[in-house]
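hi!! sorry for the late reply, been swamped w classes. u asked for the two structures so here they r. pasted raw, havent cleaned anything up. first the sequence of the first protein and right below it the tokens
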Amino acid sequence: MAVGDVTQIRNVGIAGQGGAGKTSLAEALLFTMGATNRLGSVDDATSNFDVEPEEQRRKLSLTTAMHHGTWNKCDVTLVDTPGYLNFLADGLNSLRACTGVVFVAEAAPGAIKVEAERIWARIEELGLPRLAFVSKMDRERADFDAAVADLRSALGAKAVPVQLPIGAADEFRGVIDLIHMRALVTGADGKVTAEDVPADLREAAVNAREALVESAAETDDTLLEKYLDAGTLSDEDLDAALRNAVRAGAIMPVLCGSGKENLGAGPLLDDIVEYLAAPSERPAARGVDLEGAEIERPPSPTAPFSAYIFKTIADPFAGKLTVFQVLSGELSGDTAVFNSSRDTRERMGHLLKLEGKKQQQVDKLTTGEIGAVAKLKESGAGDTLCDEKAPIRYPGLLTVPAAISFAVEPKSKGDEDKASQGLIKLADEDPTLKIARDPQTKEILVSGVGQLHIEVAVERLHRKFGVDVELKDPKVPYKETIKKSAKAQGRLKKQSGGRGQFGDTWIEIEPLPRGGGFEFVDKIVGGAIPRQYIPAVEKGLREALVGGVIAGYEMVDIRATLYDGSFHTVDSSEMAFKIAASIGFKNAVADAKAVLLEPVMTLEVAVPDECMGDVIGDLNSRRGKVLGVDPKSGSQVIRAHVPMAEVLRYSPDLRSMTSGRGSFSMELSGYEEVPPHLAEKIIAASQAAKADEH
């Protein structure tokens, strides 16, 4: 590829649900291009894409990986994306850097799952040209026709075979090229030879080619007229029609083979170069200027430089690698650029192209190319880099809400800060991982897409930062409040030979509306308590709130009024009045009908129509209150208020009820009183925990 020749670039996302054979196919493509000298394997941990120890142990992709090679004078970058639900977000964001997609589906009936549907929706949203590859044709009971039918029915794809398999399972040995009507057969030496179509498959091939020609002709009025007049199309016309139809998203050609056995990689590479788009053939990138006005930047090397960061990688040798796609212009190493997302400047060091866990240094990157740079100070995933003289800001990352949270407890005392810092660095690499510290329970909370997602993060925390932690269900941050008004005296009088301690307060407490917090009212008149001691009274009241009264939880929604008291000219002090106020508050709470409050979440659950009844019934069993149901994008969205304690492990339960097709988001709605029979258990458990501490 000539430097700067954007027409000779293909960034190809290898996408599909987990277990479809994506990484094995990517390895076959890499080997066929000559980018590697041996066929990498997921099974024996020699993959050039699954390089993390956690990936090798589980034999599945947990993060997007990239490698590149050359085919027919084109520079082809392969973007191998994860397909399992827990790690889907990284792949969905990485697809944005692709100019086309190979959608991988397993050669089995009913193999399309919810992950494939979500990936397909993202491909549609981005308007990416796509090819389909039916993988694992060498597996037992492989069924090409069933896979094509699933692509059409489950995804609504305009899937049109451009190949037919020759044999299946142990007898799979090649494909029929329907465009040129020839058999491409792989011999024992791995070489592909062109032969005549086998006689027993001739009729099926003729019928399949006729369907292909009809589908292609329907996408172009001129070709359709030509087809109706002549009854067929030439190979050249068919090629041109497919090229235009694929780039317009009107057709998805379907190929087949086996990545593991390297069958079908060569023809697929031919079609990647022929049918998928170059960056210059993609729409102009849309963003906003620094004032927020919408602008576009054409995909041209002569346009001002701009790039979008779609991923960061924590590399043990290079430090943090920032991975980006150049959307316009060109970039050389050791160049100053502007981060328009953070209003800061960065100095680009050596430019790199990713080759699995290795990197290749390059002098320049042009429009469309994917590259990386080490040790940027401020920039992160979702940011825009650009020429400061022509600023533009592109939309940020696709966000995926956390579905489950765990409390993280270091196994060794004193490792709290080390664990927090390590988790924060992991969250920089994986934006779907959320780290927080609950101010009430004092726990480190890690939230993610699913339990496996968090377990992998914990493994990486141990491997990269040497910290071992345990995962526990987070404590529910209950609170306490009162239901009626009460008055009480708080009096401290101590005499021990020298100067004593004296403070005398009269406190009235009353409930505030939910969410009212705490109010302090000073009604002292006539100097009953000197002014210098009033702040100490308020401080004593606020400190008394923190420890609660009935179960040790923070008290809220209370107004406390200081309306009377007395003092001693010698023995009174700020400390004495602080303690007296605390005593008075606790005495008053004893008569104010204290109750326990629990956090209630607003839950939005999107489910298929047929699952709605089961999900609503389950929410009711969790003490939920359904607020309404709204149709949205082919599903039903259920809105409900549910106590937090009932949905700590909601994610796996919802997945089970909906066969993985349900999703949800939740946020804190407020606090409500815990039912008495449950409050008794919570209070008893809290008192028992305190007794154990002592």
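now the second protein. again sequence first, tokens right under
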Amino acid sequence: MKQIAQHWKSPWLRRSLAVVWFLGVGGIAFLWQLGDTGLFDETEPVFAETARQMLERNDWGTPYFNDHLRFDKPPLMYWLVAIGYQLLGVNEWAARLPSALAAIALLGLCFYSLQRFRQTPPLLSAGQLWVPGMVGAAIVAFNPLMLVWGRAGVADMLLVSTLSGALLAFFIGYSQPHCPANQRRWYAVFYSLLGFAVLAKGLVAIALPVVILPTFLFYCGNARQVWRELRPGRGIWLTLAIAAPWFGLMLITHGQLFIDKFFFYHHVERFTSVISRQKGPWYYYFVVVFLGFAPWSVFLPGAILRLRLWRRHLWQQRPRHEQLGLFAGFWLIGVFGFFSLAMTKLPSYVLPLVPPAAILVVLGWAELQTTPLRSGWQRLHLSLSSGFNVLIFLVLVGVFWALPAQLAQRPSEARFVPLLFAADLPFRGMALGAAIALSILVLWLWRKYLLLWVPNLSGMVALVAFILLPLLSIIDTERQRPLRQLAQTATANFQPGDEYVLMGHRKSSVVFYARQKVNFLRKPHHIERYVRTISSQSGALLIIGKADEIASLALPTDTYQALGEAGQYQLIRADRRSFQTRPVQVR
């Protein structure tokens, strides 16, 4: 044991173990089987296809999807995916890799920040300081919010990584007032990453720091001093040098259309009104954070209370490098409050609060390691947190017990039941949830609160390996693969003048896999109206739809040809004239 302790004191060994841990956590959470499933509707294929059209058009400025301008998001994700296509080919792996790498980079910066800074007095040894960093990186990775968006080919993880990186770079510079050279370098990183965050998802990357940083600095009472250190006159130019060229190009090229779509519709209206029925009650993000940051969310209220924000004078007396927890608190509250005020609500909006939430939880555990449980409220909140921790995994048991029966009652979902049992997922879920709950219960009863991260992290890793990835494979097989196969079949049978039609709901993946423009038309009379009034082609219609939707067309057998069938879907080649000659049906 003495030899092990001596080896652990070696910085080289600690760094090596940290690197192995870091790569293992990031690899399992974000890279493992990343490209094994097709792109999931609705948003993921839009980013993938927009990047592909950039390459096809040789236009890296204006984003297009399905031959229509797409000003929903800035181009950084499209650019990175397009570069991935050039290196790895046009495939799912390349479409998702930027998000995965962005998530892993965020883990690294969170690890560095937790390893270097702490909220409590310097009672932890150099070796012990590596443990919070390693655990913190794992908590950032293994929660539902990060696992979902860190493996999806959309822009959300790029925003989280660049914006969180900018805020952490600010704090690292802020913590070094006696080393101006280092401070200037980290502030330059802050302004640079802010520019990339704007290119990732727009002006929200500016709005959040404008909310978080002033409130933090005014609370600390050093706003004027830090303002001078930041040199915003120079820093803003660095941000603009990165972000402004694309915006300038779009304003010159598209003028008022770009202003209306990008700035007013996707920024102002999303904040002030409900877009695409994406609304929620005032408590919407309380539920999102509780479920999305589970199982760690049960420890978050106590971690926030432990900041004791009502004791402002104590925080103002602390040196800057001991204010990481305070900064994380203002960061979390700022993100939560900002998006709670917005009228349009989506779970992904609060992704930027995952890093500060993880930092707060880890620093709370670090404080427990250095200070005994002296007060009753500390024991109370730890007992409550542990109890809710057990309850979360017991609920997981109940979910997997009830899931097959619930799916069997829905005709459209009943086909999943035998697949779930074939993969043994209900039993796996119940056994895993019960085992984790029992482990947490034992540690709770023994009051080994500092070890609670072990069963939680082990359980989350097991959930990814034995539940999440097999479940994604089943969903892909039943819902996405049929559309993918028929889209590729349609492309193989495409002739000059033909047009693609997808009946029913909008499925963007068909556009990506067909490599052609697709007309999304829900009803038979929509197709009739399109053929009569809009379409000017002379070829056939390649129509993909569910079997009952194809039957609802009521086409004479001599006017169409069945080209394929997969899952619930069918593909036919229909004569355009059959829609032009019969009476228009209005339903």
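hope this helps!! also noticed smth abt the second:
Confidence is low (pLDDT under 50) at residues 1-6, 119-127.
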